[in-house]
Amino acid sequence: MRSLWSSIPVRGRVILLVWAALLLAAPIALDRYLISIFVLIFYFAYVGQAWNLMMGFAGQLSLGHALYAGLGGYVAALLWFYFGIGPWLGVFAGVAVAATFGAVIGWLGFRFGIEGVYFALLTIAFAEFTRIAFDNMPFTGGAGGLFLLYDAQRSHQWWNLRGGPLLFYYLTLALAAGAAVLTASLTRSRLGFQWLAVREDEQAALSLGINAFRVKMIAILISAGMTAIGGVVLTFYYNNLFPAQAFDIGRSIEMILAPIIGGLGTIFGPIVGAFILTPLGEGLIALTQKLGIDAPGAKAVFYGLALMVIITVRPNGIWPWLRRLLGLTESGS
Amino acid sequence: MTALLEVAGVSKRFRGVLAVDSVSFEVPAGVIFAVIGPNGAGKTTLFNTIAGVFAPDGGAISLAGERIDGLAPNEICARGIGRTFQIVRPFPALSVEDNVMVGALLHRRDLASARERAQALLRRLDLFDRRRQIAATLTLPDRKRLEVARALATEPRLLLLDEVMAGLRPTETDRMVATLRELNRESGLTILLIEHVMRAVMALASRVLVLDHGIAIARGAPEAIVRNPAVVQSYLGAETA
Asked: Which long-range contacts (CB under 8 A, 24 or more apart) does A13-21 make?
């Protein structure tokens, strides 16, 4: 931790501290609606970081990350729904189930040399058939969804994630910050170097004694587990789950836009991406509603356009460019 | 003297083509051993079989008496064989130093000690001044040296060099030859090299194996090899006359 902090240039530390203070104090000035947008920003920064760890650092493309979030959410919600087990405990079960799915996908892909886009197809396939399975399982609510009903007695048990937007504001903020610190420290570890080597050239990595299978498995396990935690939190925030949304490929794509736009393989990329994309997307929805236009696909179209523009103008993402602009080029990745 | 590397009757077949045909040789510890031969003679295939990229279809490969054939490339590296690639494969987006760090982290768990080793090797291979450069921006001779530094970082007992001189200018070749000689003399590093640049082979190797169509057609001291009629006919031709 200390070496991590000292690796950031002084100017970067100042910016980071001011920014952290602003975010911690912001709810004082924000209304409920704005707080809810920040929750989404932090959520997408968090799950984007989880995906970035696997793609940006270990070089493994997943297009089915909604699977892990959905599984985490469902497992914790079902434990709460049927047995009254709180999410602070349920999250462990959710992480375990998601990591197990990650292990199966990783084993199939990495053991049998399914790489690149073919591996990505495998991740989509798993998310899709899980969606179909959940659509048809009666005890999960099937296609009709699962609802966490309001319970007056437990409505203020913050440790059970029962609370208002403010609770989720700070919780998702902590998750996003924690994920960034975790990723930063991992990338400065032996494992981080091994990930980069495998990402850059797997044959060369093998020739240097790196067990590529093992390091890729670690990446998918960490990424799946982290994403599942995000799924648990989002589920207890919204209090409902539908297979068609939770496991949807659209959800998976939404998760990966922030790191791509912000900058793959950078620590601040997913955060910057989420801060740009989510407010714009939500703003667009608010605008179309205000104008009375019924355009349910507007957000997707807008995301598509934003992606095209940013990839064209800043192919490495916004963060590497922003970092230069802020004068942080030296080591503050 | 016991052999560090023992290759006994190794064969490798690709869909009916016998790329390596029951080749046997021994590389004693501490020597520089060269494998030469015309293009398509099976040199790189032989190398890849030793390095674990392919399992041989027949025969046995042992390092210091332990069978290593059929092991994965990473396991073979962990046992003490470092290699370079004929077509260099640096990690393009990483800095020169980080490329070497990856190798050094095989046996060193903490970054500081790995960085120390990486920097020592970068000094040795004349890349220290370029250590912060991104590997993709290096010139070919520098990339070749980077491959050697990276392989050395894994602290190999045996270093496999696949045409590290190819594409180098004569002065650069001499520099590489001098570096490899130093490494061999100072640390007793055993080197097995595939090379087309006869100038380097003559300057470095104490023993030479000649492959042609996957078969070992001659072996011996370099001075004798260049006068061997079979070798002259199949490989060297009139060049050396």
From this structure: A15/A326, A15/A328, A20/A177
pLDDT tens digits for A165-215?
Answer: 999 999 999 999 999 999 999 999 999 999 999 999 999 999 999 999 999
Domain boundary residue, one of B105, B121, B153:
B153
- Residue A296 maps to which CATH number? 1.10.3470
Instruction: Give domain status of residue A11, yes or no.
Output: no
Residues 64-123 of B with CB under 8 A from A: 72-74, 77-78, 82-83, 85, 89-94, 98, 101-103, 105-106, 109-111, 114
| Cross-strand bridge partners of residue B60 | B8
What is the pTM (predicted TM-score) of this model? 0.92
Residue B238: how many CB atoms within 10 A of its CB? 6
Of A190, A193, A201, Cβ closest to residue B89:
A201
Q: Which residue of B has its CA nearest to A265?
A: B93
Q: How far is A212 from chain B (nearest CA, A)?
A: 8
Q: Give the total number of structural domains in chain B.
A: 2
Cα separation, B112 vs B135, in Å, equals 21
Residues of A in contact with B93 (CB under 8 A): 196, 200
Residues comprising chain A, all counted? 333
Q: What is the complex's ipTM, to 2 decimals?
A: 0.92
Distance of CA A274 to the CA centre of its chain: 10
How far B226 CA sits from the closest chain A CA (Å)?
33
Write the CB contacts of A14 (distance below 8 Å, at least 6 apart in sequence): none
Q: Is B51 on the interface with A (CB under 8 A)?
A: yes
Q: Is B159 on the interface with A (CB under 8 A)?
A: no
The model's pLDDT over A86-140, given as tens digits with 9 standing for 90+, comes to: 999 999 999 999 999 999 999 999 999 899 999 999 999 999 999 999 999 989 8
